[in-house]
Design a protein that fits this description.
This protein has 15 helices and 24 strands. By secondary structure, the protein is of the alpha/beta class. The chain is globular and about 80 Å long. About 40% of the residues are buried. The structure holds xanthosine-5'-monophosphate.
């Protein structure tokens, strides 16, 4: 049976990160709303209580009865999770005099406590809370402190497997945070650490065979990582009974449709490529409002996809590359569960297709690992996310064939240059890149990585409603600027602009202006999200 850790979500922004860290320990975990513990699930081996934006004294704070959990499973409370257990069992939680936030050092900790096995002196941890535990429940004892946070960590009496830490072991700035989680998940909960890409592929292929049998399955491909990995996995399970549909709406990257179709054919997929660019471009003519553009593209996409899907009259299943972060029911501060489930959407009722979502338990980095396990080419696996409406949301103003051509040419230079520009990284930077799953060999403490692989997403934006004066040779030009965008991120919820090297920017700018007719100026977008967004529209 697949062992699992349950992470009860009290609404913290870092709950998903806890999940990722546990998975990095080759251990399966599920993130569930704080009050949805699966009491009947025999595969649970431990429980983590997440942080929360609330104070335990807020009337609306999330509270849950732990009677049937405490004593049955090892428990680790993080931040609010620690404060909540302290409050629940009779301790005292009060507003911290000055907000306890940022880097701190564990100046004292219980060296023989299993939670701190292997910890070094003065280990740096990350605090982020407005409340603090001023008195522990009867019998509980402090097992770590920092110069300003007394009960930085505690344990229940008599060796009971119940711990609380007021810092966040899941964040990057808690230097030994992963070690703490390993101590909990592996040593204390007894994880066998058998959740791996290889085991996932084996069990999922077997499950798909059982679920789908000899039925025909339809899958919409986008060229992106998730749908591509989903297709290759299904292909491994059911071969030619999988029919993939890849729609070209005319606003993909330069040559992307042909390149990706070729990749899919090499991978042995049964793909129908539909070139519908005329339809999309006609329907979008003269439309400038971003939401209106999205609506038209969404509607046209469903029409084109459905027309193809309906031809496959014996199809019984619709497969989708939905991944775990698309489905996690995250809690917002009002206590409402928000669901953001992407769907191909609107397939005709009469087709009565059942849904098959084999990647629904995976985080993005795990999808990439599964792709590698399946032998997919690296350029498909490390591909940046790309919005469904494509370049339409990167052309400000109305869309014409000529504008798409200009943007495709400029973007092609930018993306190719990002792939070609290699940098040597070491220390923390190298560790961060390797932890994100980028395949790079460490040699003499250094790795060599392209700029493309160091960033989350990059793209070019055509400011087609703006013209500016320039001079080329002896001629005055009056043409459009393009903006280059590159961001670092882990989940696209927040993003920082990437600090690209100046020599790189100079080279790309020169090449774009020299080679792309219609562009005479290149800008770099230095806005972060929030308050900006990754896409311009
Ligand atoms: P924003 O611009 O909201 O983007 O910061 C966050 C992530 O979502 C992608 N994105 C989209 N993806 N349809 C999509 O399939 C869309 O309409 C859309 N808009 C933004 C964006 O590329 C980034 O990865």
């Amino acid at each position: 049976m697949q062992q699992k850790i349950i992470i009860l979500d009290f609404g913290s922004q870092t709950t998903q990160l806890i999940g990722r860290r546990v998975r990095e320990l080759d251990t399966f975990c599920e993130i569930l709303p704080y009050n949805k513990f699966p009491h009947d699930d025999p595969s649970v081996i431990g429980v983590i209580l997440s942080g929360s934006p609330f104070s335990v004294y807020d009337e609306t704070a999330f509270k849950v009865d732990l009677t049937h959990i405490r004593g049955k499973y090892p428990i680790l409370g993080i931040c609010y999770g620690a404060q909540y257990m302290s409050y629940l069992y009779g301790g005292n939680v009060e507003p911290a005099g000055s907000r306890e936030y940022g880097r701190q050092n564990l100046t004292s900790f219980e060296h023989d406590n299993p939670l701190f096995k292997g910890f070094s002196e003065n280990s740096q941890v990350w605090m982020s809370h407005g409340d603090t535990i001023t008195a522990l429940p009867e019998g509980f004892r402090e097992i770590a402190s920092t110069p300003t946070v007394k009960n930085a960590a505690y344990q229940a009496p008599n060796g009971e497997k119940l711990w609380g830490v007021q810092f966040h072991p899941e964040v990057f700035h808690s230097v030994q945070g992963s070690l703490l989680l390993k101590n909990f998940v592996v040593d204390i909960c007894g994880s066998r650490q058998d959740w791996s890409a290889a085991s996932f592929v084996d069990t999922t292929v077997a499950e798909i065979k059982k679920q789908v049998g000899t039925d025909r399955v339809i899958l919409g491909l986008s060229g992106g990582v998730d749908s591509s990995v989903c297709a290759v996995l299904l292909n491994r399970a059911i071969g030619k009974n999988l029919t993939c549909i890849f729609v070209d709406h005319g606003m993909l990257r330069k040559n992307e449709f042909q390149d990706v179709m070729r990749d899919y054919e090499v991978l042995g997929l049964n793909v129908i490529g539909v070139n519908a660019s005329d339809k999309f471009l006609i329907d979008l003519a003269g439309v400038t409002d971003p939401e209106e553009k999205r609506k038209i593209i969404g509607r046209d996409f469903i029409e084109v996809f459905n027309a193809e899907a309906k031809k496959i009259t014996d199809a019984k299943w619709l497969a989708q590359g939905t991944i775990y972060p698309d489905r996690i029911e995250s809690l917002n501060i009002t206590g409402k569960v928000i669901k953001s489930h992407h769907n191909v959407g609107g397939l005709p009722e009469e087709m009565r297709l059942s849904l098959c979502e084999p990647l629904k338990w995976l985080f993005k980095d795990e999808v990439r690992r599964v792709g590698r396990q399946l032998g997919m080419p690296e350029h498909l696996i490390t591909r940046h996310p790309f919005p469904g409406p494509g370049l339409a949301v990167r052309i400000l103003g109305d869309i014409t064939r000529e504008k798409v051509r200009i943007l495709q040419d400029a973007d092609d230079i930018y993306i190719r240059s990002l792939r070609e520009y290699k940098m040597k990284l070491k220390g923390e930077e190298a560790r961060r890149i390797l932890a994100a799953g980028v395949p790079a060999d460490m040699k003499d403490g250094e790795i060599e990585v392209s700029l493309y692989d160091q960033i989350w997403q990059a793209g070019t934006i055509l400011l087609s409603s703006v013209r500016s004066v320039g001079v080329m040779g002896d001629e005055r030009t009056y043409e459009h600027p393009v903006a280059l965008r590159a961001v670092t991120s882990t989940d696209a919820m927040t993003a920082d602009w990437a600090h690209l090297p100046y020599d790189f920017m100079a080279k790309v700018s020169t090449e774009i202006i020299n080679k792309v007719k219609g562009v005479n100026r290149v800008c770099y977008d230095i806005s972060s999200k929030p308050p900006s967004t990754i896409e311009w529209e």
